[in-house]
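user: Here is a favour to ask of a fellow structure person. I have my own habits and do not want them to colour yours. Could you put it straight underneath, so I can go through it closely?

assistant:
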Amino acid sequence: MNYSIFAERLSELLFESQLNPPAFAAKIGCGRNTINRYLSGNNMPALNLVIRMADYFKCSVDFLMGAAQENQNASFKDCPNFSEQLKFLCEHFGKTKDQLQKATQIPESAIYSWQSGNTTPTIESIEKIADFFDCSMDFILGRET
């Protein structure tokens, strides 16, 4: 995960939208200093905040995170519960959670926690899962229409 690409994309999107960090923070419901930390390239937001940012800018998570070069400017579906999405992904791609864990080196306990609905993955885990299934992060999240 390249924090500097995310920071650059966020900065570009803010500029194109003529928003300053405090105004954007208010629009997506986070602290004003939070956006500045992301723009510095030293921090990565939680998955739910990445999704709110992508929804606000009407861009893909893949574009925002630097995994796609083009901003698709599309509309996306609301994300389903990740435990349901994880089950769908394994069935859709004919893979097991054990294969996912071994290939991505994501701790088994984390996958179990997602499966039981206790936690959601980090954006770094979503990127690993997308690489494993060879698809977009937005598909992993269930955002693609």
Remarks:
- The longest helix spans residues 3-16.
- The chain is about 60% helix and 0% strand.
